[in-house]
Amino acid sequence: MSILSYLDPSFLRRLVGRVADRPGDYADLFAERCATVSLDRDPSGSVAAVEGISEGCALRRMTADAVRHLAVGSLEADDV
Question: Mean per-residue pLDDT for 24-40?
Protein backbone atom coordinates (compact mmCIF):
# COMPACT_ATOMS: atom_id res chain seq x y z
CA MET A 1 0.00 0.00 0.00
CA SER A 2 1.32 3.46 -0.94
CA ILE A 3 1.93 6.13 1.69
CA LEU A 4 -0.27 8.43 -0.40
CA SER A 5 -3.30 6.41 0.71
CA TYR A 6 -2.54 7.44 4.32
CA LEU A 7 -2.27 11.17 3.60
CA ASP A 8 -5.08 13.67 3.93
CA PRO A 9 -6.03 15.06 0.47
CA SER A 10 -5.87 18.64 1.82
CA PHE A 11 -2.25 17.98 2.83
CA LEU A 12 -1.40 16.87 -0.70
CA ARG A 13 -3.21 19.86 -2.24
CA ARG A 14 -1.24 22.23 -0.02
CA LEU A 15 2.08 20.60 -0.94
CA VAL A 16 1.34 20.62 -4.65
CA GLY A 17 0.15 24.22 -4.38
CA ARG A 18 3.54 25.21 -2.93
CA VAL A 19 5.17 23.96 -6.12
CA ALA A 20 2.53 25.03 -8.66
CA ASP A 21 2.40 28.65 -7.45
CA ARG A 22 6.01 29.23 -8.44
CA PRO A 23 7.76 28.84 -11.79
CA GLY A 24 10.08 25.90 -12.23
CA ASP A 25 11.29 23.29 -14.65
CA TYR A 26 10.96 20.27 -12.38
CA ALA A 27 9.59 19.43 -8.94
CA ASP A 28 9.34 16.31 -6.83
CA LEU A 29 7.76 15.32 -3.53
CA PHE A 30 9.17 12.89 -0.97
CA ALA A 31 7.02 11.61 1.88
CA GLU A 32 8.05 9.07 4.50
CA ARG A 33 6.51 7.38 7.50
CA CYS A 34 8.77 5.00 9.37
CA ALA A 35 7.76 2.74 12.26
CA THR A 36 10.58 1.74 14.58
CA VAL A 37 11.08 -0.61 17.50
CA SER A 38 14.17 -0.39 19.67
CA LEU A 39 15.25 -2.41 22.66
CA ASP A 40 16.47 -0.48 25.69
CA ARG A 41 18.39 -2.17 28.46
CA ASP A 42 18.56 -0.47 31.86
CA PRO A 43 21.44 -0.90 34.33
CA SER A 44 19.63 -3.75 36.11
CA GLY A 45 19.63 -5.77 32.89
CA SER A 46 15.92 -5.65 32.09
CA VAL A 47 14.98 -4.93 28.50
CA ALA A 48 12.05 -2.86 27.26
CA ALA A 49 10.78 -2.49 23.70
CA VAL A 50 10.19 1.13 22.68
CA GLU A 51 8.02 1.80 19.63
CA GLY A 52 8.02 5.01 17.65
CA ILE A 53 6.99 6.60 14.38
CA SER A 54 8.91 9.24 12.49
CA GLU A 55 7.47 10.99 9.49
CA GLY A 56 8.09 13.92 7.23
CA CYS A 57 8.01 15.27 3.73
CA ALA A 58 10.16 17.35 1.43
CA LEU A 59 9.62 19.26 -1.78
CA ARG A 60 12.33 20.07 -4.28
CA ARG A 61 11.79 22.58 -7.08
CA MET A 62 14.38 23.19 -9.77
CA THR A 63 14.76 25.97 -12.30
CA ALA A 64 17.54 26.58 -14.78
CA ASP A 65 19.54 28.54 -12.19
CA ALA A 66 18.37 27.38 -8.74
CA VAL A 67 17.26 24.44 -6.62
CA ARG A 68 14.88 25.10 -3.71
CA HIS A 69 13.95 22.75 -0.88
CA LEU A 70 11.13 22.72 1.66
CA ALA A 71 11.22 20.07 4.38
CA VAL A 72 8.77 19.44 7.21
CA GLY A 73 9.04 16.83 9.95
CA SER A 74 5.35 16.06 9.77
CA LEU A 75 2.62 14.75 7.48
CA GLU A 76 -0.04 17.08 8.88
CA ALA A 77 -1.68 19.66 6.59
CA ASP A 78 -1.41 22.43 9.21
CA ASP A 79 2.38 22.08 9.35
CA VAL A 80 2.99 22.85 5.67
Answer: 86
Give which of 22, 14, 25 is closest to 72, Cα–Cα.
14
3-state helix/strand/coil string of the chain: CCHHHHCCHHHHHHHHHHHHCCCCCEEEEEEEEEEEEEEEECCCCCEEEEEEEEEEEEEEEECCCCEEEEEECCCCHHHC
pTM to 2 decimal places: 0.59
| Beta-ladder partners of 20 | none
Half-sphere exposure of 66 (CA within 13 A, CB side): 6
- The pLDDT of residue 37: 93
Is pLDDT above 80 for 22?
no
Under a CB-based contact definition with an 8 Å cutoff, are residues 31 and 12 in contact?
no
